[in-house]
Every structure is written in structure tokens, then in C-alpha cells.
Amino acid sequence: MEYVIGGFTDKGPRKNNEDRYCCYHYQDGGLEAAFAVVCDGVGGMEHGARASDMLVSAFRRWAEDHIQDLFEKYDDCLDIMDEWMGIVDEVNESLLEKAEEEKSCSGTTVTALLLYDDRYCILNVGDSRAYEIGKDVRQLTDDDSLVAKEVAMGRLTEEEAARDPRRNVLLQCVGTPDLQQSFYDGKVEAPSLFIICTDGFYHELSPEMMRGFLYPPAMRGRKDIESALDDLSGMARLSGEQDNITAVAIAVR
Fold first, then answer.
1. 3-state SS string over 124-163?
2. What is the rounded end-to-end Cα distance, in angstroms, of the chain?
């Protein structure tokens, strides 16, 4: 399989951009892998940005140091999950220590995605998301949010949750005690496209809009992906989105 990867971020009307992302494309002969991570800092101003910075930097180091070993070192996604969870736990402890020292609080969501061979691996904490676009659009992750819990318990519909004033209330984020992480894996088929994004990206966009702009066969290069993400960000802004917007897309060919 071949991968095409691109990313986009926009602070919008906010004073600061507390979102962070990185993406990494590895090629060596016939071996190929794609990695990406997005984080949405919470806690306000520099505290949220610091938390997202720390976690993205930690995942970037993992990709630079280990992605070339994917095809020899790791038997399956469970091995990768162990390392990723260790990364998140370490950053979580650092954030808790800083919070105690400074009498402040900071945290971040995280969605990390790896594609290699014919599989995907995803780690998720918070309400950033991963989607797969193929013949239809599938949300691959579950939100760690109050409204998602209300939907799961039958107290809200999806439509009500999208407009609920509590939609930004998180039940989990990195930087809190008793952290719980979620891990997902599955098979990859071509042509398809994977998106990981912060909540500012998806709040005002329907799955149909995402697929219309990010139609997998049309994403032939990085510029195609980044232009489509820019266009979708503009659509979200026109619909009233005020939050930072960040997304990374990986087309599978």
C-alpha cells in the first residue's frame, strides 16, 4: 500500500492555538508506514499549549526512533499499544507534577494513528477523533465526553449532543489522575482515507461534507489533502466554529 499524508491547523479567532500535531511518512524500499498525532490542549492559554506540546513531542520522538523497526520489532498492534500507553503515562505524570508545583491545571486530548502493512492502530484520550472514509464515513474512536456518555445511555440523541452546551465537558484527558486510555485496531483497505482531528474540526462538519472534500481517489498528493483540509476548515468557520481547528489526513492507495 502507498500513503499520502497532509496536515492543517488554524487558531481561528482565538488568541492562542493550543492544538498541536505532527505527521511522519516512512519509506524504505517496498516498506511504507504513516504516523500522525493530534492533541488539543485544555487548561487555558500557555498551560493547554504546554500539555499538547509535551505529548506531541514525545510521540514525534517515538516515530523518529522506532518507526523504521515496525516490520521487524513489532508482532502486532498490541506491542505498539504498550509503548504508546507508556508514552502517555509518562507525560501524564509530568503534567500532574507540574500542576502540583504550580498550583495550576493543564491537560490535553490525544489521538495517535499508525498505518502499516494492512492495519491501523489508534490510541485515543478525550474528544479528538479518528475517522475512516471509504464507501462511507466511520468514526473509529469513542469520545471521552459527558455528552457521549449521555448518548450511550439513551439520554440524548446524536443531534441533541451536537448542540448541547455541555459538549466540551471531558471525562478523560491527559493530565488527570486515574487516566484511562482507549486503543483501536483494524484492517486497512485501499482506496480509503483516515482523518484524525480535534473537536474544532468536526463540530460543524457532517460526514458527507468530509467525504465530499476528502474523496479518497482524488487525494493524489500532499497539496490535495492540505487544500481539502483548508477548505473544510473554512466551511466550519462559516458555520460559526470559534475553536482551534487541526486535522491530519492519510490517503491509502
1. EECCCEEEEECCCEEECCCCCEHHHHHHHCCCCCHHHHHH
2. 6
The arithmetic mean of pLDDT across residues 98-124, rounded, is 93
| DSSP label at residue 174 | B
What is the rounded distance in angstroms from the CA atom of residue 136 to the CA atom of residue 97?
43
Burial class (CB in 10 A: 0-12, 13-18, 19+), 184: middle
**pLDDT at residue 56 above 70?**
yes
- Alpha carbons 220 and 253: distance in angstroms, whole number: 9
Predicted confidence band of residue 75 (pLDDT cuts 50, 70, 90): confident
Q: Grid coordinates standing for 113?
A: 494513528
What does the block give as the cell for 41? 490542549
CA distance 18 to 55: 12
User: CA 61, 112, 39, 244 torsion: positive or negative?
Assistant: positive
Q: Give me 189's grid cell.
A: 483497505
Is the pLDDT score of 2 beyond 80? yes
* Buried b / exposed e along 101-136 (16+ C-beta atoms within 10 A): eeeebbbbbbbbbbbbeeebbbbbbbbbbbbbbbee
Burial class (CB in 10 A: 0-12, 13-18, 19+), 14: middle
Q: State CA 1 to chain mean position distance.
A: 22
Q: Is 112 in contact with 59 (CB distance < 8 Å)?
A: yes
